[in-house]
Amino acid sequence: MLPQEFLFGASLSGFQFEMGRDTASVDKNTDWFNWVHDDLNVVTGIVSGDFPENGPGYWNNFKAFHDMAEESGMNSLRVGIEWSRVFPRTTSGIDMTALSEACDKSVVDHYRSIMTDIKKRGMKLMVNLNHFTLPSWCHDPIAVNRRLDMSRSGWADRETAHEFIKYALFAVECFDDLVDFLSTLNEPNIVAMNGYFSRGSGFPPSIVAPDLWKSSLENQINAHRMAYRKMKALTKKPVGVIYATIWFDGDDSREKAMDLLNWKPLDAFLEESDFLGVNYYSRNVVEAVPGTPGNEDHGVDWRFLDGFGYYCTPDSFSRTGNPSSDNGWEFYPEGLYKTVSEISRRYSIPLYITENGVADEHDVYRSRYIIEHVYSIEKLVSEGCDIRGYFHWSLTDNYEWALGTSMCFGLAKVDFLTGQLIPRPSLYLYREVARSRSATRFTDLSRHEEVLEEHVEAQDGND
Description:
The chain is α/β, with parallel strands linked by helices. The chain has a single domain, classed as Glycosidases (TIM Barrel), CATH 3.20.20. It has helices at about 30-35, 40-45, 60-70, 85, 100, 105-120, 140-145, 160-175, 190-195, 210-230, 255-270, 295-300, 335-345, 365-380, 425-435, 450-460, and strands at about 5-10, 75-80, 125-130, 180-185, 240-245, 245-250, 275-280, 285-290, 300-305, 350-355, 385-390, 410-415, 420-425. Strand 12 (about 410-415) and strand 13 (about 420-425) form a beta hairpin. Helix 8 (about 160-175) packs parallel to helix 10 (about 210-230), helix 9 runs antiparallel to helix 10 and helix 13 (about 335-345) packs parallel to helix 14. The chain starts with 6 loop residues before the first strand and ends with a helix.
């Protein structure tokens, strides 16, 4: 059983949840809004053709979302705020003392209403300041993609870090009395790699430029660290960062992959951070590809193997027999155990599992997914890992970036025509896990306990 103070909640973001069914909820001022509306992106299949303004509608219906979370036994929520809503016009050249005149005060008041509604329910609140999107005044991904026009190049431009710091400090001034935890960035490694290396993701600006992958990640590291220092002068609340962790299996090249994509960035981010938010969904399996062209520029001399991790056939099974989700992600809960064990060994810092979930429209596997991952957390905590919360992704279906509304991650279904929130059976399972603070009594539904014991015995044999 997990401690009484352990947090059970769900994670939401701004862009993916806020818009829906009324014009007042629409925010057109982001790079992602422009990206998914671009005709060429749609016709070439880079994006789905679904639009975020037809999304879940959290902006004006947040109380219904919060009702569902509270009734489901959750004692916490992680939400996001949109930089582009708070500052719809550029802040370049504007001094900190004048930011209150540049902001949209109605947006600040509305976010305060959302946060107040969460807090009055007795729930802990984690607020994330940046979840993939950037204001269009600092990032035009279409210009970057089509013309290599870098005049508004987002995180590839170090000036974006300076503007982010202003926004972060302003957010502290506006919301510090309501929040319990602040996160600067969500998955900065995904923003950098998917935007400038992994074109198949559909992330803007969708170009292959290893130097920009590196610089955009470095600029986000600097943004986090500089913001952290200045935020801590204004708040006593914990300030952290949320990172997309991936466990790598395979041949000897797995060590290089773990180092390049997990440990080196985390070493830099966690030099200045009060906690780490761990996002975990699946693993990857890699094998070496010697003599890869350009390896000296990007450090990647391996390839991901099909049939494992994020590279499975949707709604099928991996090559090792694990189920795969609607978007072809392998169920591999032991990867969470392995990843967090190694993180805890390397870093002495409080951990929150800030995203963990599955695209499963018909709710076939989600209950099993929750049981196996929460059981892994219980085992880790019993072994001394400082894990303080679990935030499922997500409370409801959402707008899943380039894939639109086709991937259903919600404990509750969203009827995107009416806005109705319809609980899936897994929501009730999660309620029982949260209320009892344990998944142990449900482990007879899977053989995960046995699998973990086999892994621990194997590790002990190697020590």
